[in-house]
Recover the amino acids of this structure.
């Protein structure tokens, strides 16, 4: 684009502002801008905000911390429900600028959109809010338990909407191709399993609004609910739960309430995030060529003295060979944790082999079903003849 192409030559019009990011909007705008060409998702009419307001006894007069506002749709609804002030943190710079456009168009006056990483904000802040609103962010995290712990320390009411891990994901090849290795982890005294998912081709879309790395970790439903209880929330209300029919996989909305503020967790006690070595190896060199292979669910316990790698934005691998990637993984395993035993890497290779074998069996079963269906169609045609 030439520098002069950045200028417009028409009278002021809301469409001109929206068209700065033409083709990358997710949400359809509300009245009086419903005729503006933007996205298609009706998030400005999201019933989950009304449901959360009812569960929490309303938002009126409350200080709200919103994580990942995307395009400001739920922010708009929080203000409509009377929130006194909304501090909304967005790390995707395109999404942040969209929020500013929405703020100006809809005349939002009790919202402060800020550009930054909310995890870094949590690590450096002790501010407390009445409500933490985290819709659509947990399943994009590389350290999901840390998000839950620090959100729990920041507010006594927490709203979460998220996808979660379930084996039913592998019933749909379009979802299965994004999921792979699982491994045990521990954070702030809570043991859990991390299930790796990769964005793959989604990273090529201008409107991508996932996490800041090529991968994230999903939690299983039980681990998610147990973690919220572990961090002091004694009232969990569940709604909007879907299974595999949702376009993105199983999902759930949770309104978590802590009735006793003295059970609020202390961030000073959280400690380091301990993660199984085979997951740390993949973090150093994420692969973007994973196929629709169901994972092997043999997981290993995290090492008690294994520092978290410092690479925040690892470069994608350019090696497509599974064998070469496996060899590279062995090299990296010693770089991440020099004391890593050979047996751990052997287990990693066994997991890869088992995943391959399970994928082969899945393909064979699919072919058998296809052949059986073709045979039935042929028999029906012969009967008609």
């Amino acid at each position: 684009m030439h520098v002069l192409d950045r200028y417009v030559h028409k009278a002021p019009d809301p469409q001109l502002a929206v068209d700065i990011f033409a083709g990358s909007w997710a949400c359809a705008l509300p009245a009086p801008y419903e005729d503006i060409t933007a996205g298609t998702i009706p998030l400005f009419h999201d019933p989950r905000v009304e449901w959360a307001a009812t569960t929490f006894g309303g938002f009126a007069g409350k200080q709200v911390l919103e994580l990942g506002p995307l395009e400001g749709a739920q922010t708009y609804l929080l203000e409509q429900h009377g929130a006194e002030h909304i501090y909304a943190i967005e790390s995707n710079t395109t999404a942040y600028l969209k929020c500013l456009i929405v703020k100006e168009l809809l005349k939002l006056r009790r919202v402060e959109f800020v550009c930054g990483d909310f995890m870094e904000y949590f690590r450096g802040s002790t501010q407390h809010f009445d409500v933490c609103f985290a819709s659509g962010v947990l399943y994009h995290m590389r350290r999901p338990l840390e998000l839950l712990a620090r959100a729990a320390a920041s507010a006594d009411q927490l709203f979460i909407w998220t996808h979660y891990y379930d084996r039913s994901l592998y019933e749909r090849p379009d979802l299965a191709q994004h999921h792979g290795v699982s491994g045990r982890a521990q954070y702030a005294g809570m043991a859990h399993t991390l299930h790796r998912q990769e964005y793959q081709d989604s990273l090529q879309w201008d409107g991508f609004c996932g996490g800041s790395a090529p991968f994230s970790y999903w939690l299983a439903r039980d681990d998610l609910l147990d973690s919220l209880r572990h961090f002091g929330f004694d009232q969990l209300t569940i709604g909007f739960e879907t299974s595999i029919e949702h376009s993105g996989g199983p999902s759930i909305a949770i309104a978590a309430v802590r009735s006793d503020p003295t059970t609020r967790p202390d961030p000073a006690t959280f400690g380091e995030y301990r993660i199984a070595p085979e997951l740390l190896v993949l973090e150093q060199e994420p692969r973007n060529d994973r196929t629709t292979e169901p994972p092997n669910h043999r997981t290993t316990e995290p090492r008690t003295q294994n520092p978290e790698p410092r690479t925040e934005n690892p470069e994608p691998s350019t090696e497509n060979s599974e064998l070469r990637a496996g060899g590279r993984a062995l090299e990296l395993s010693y770089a991440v944790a020099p004391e890593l035993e050979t047996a751990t890497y052997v287990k990693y290779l066994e997991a890869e082999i088992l995943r391959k074998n399970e994928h082969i069996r899945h393909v064979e079963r699919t072919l058998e079903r296809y052949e059986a269906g073709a045979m039935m169609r042929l028999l029906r045609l012969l009967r008609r003849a």
Notes: The longest helix spans residues 342-384.
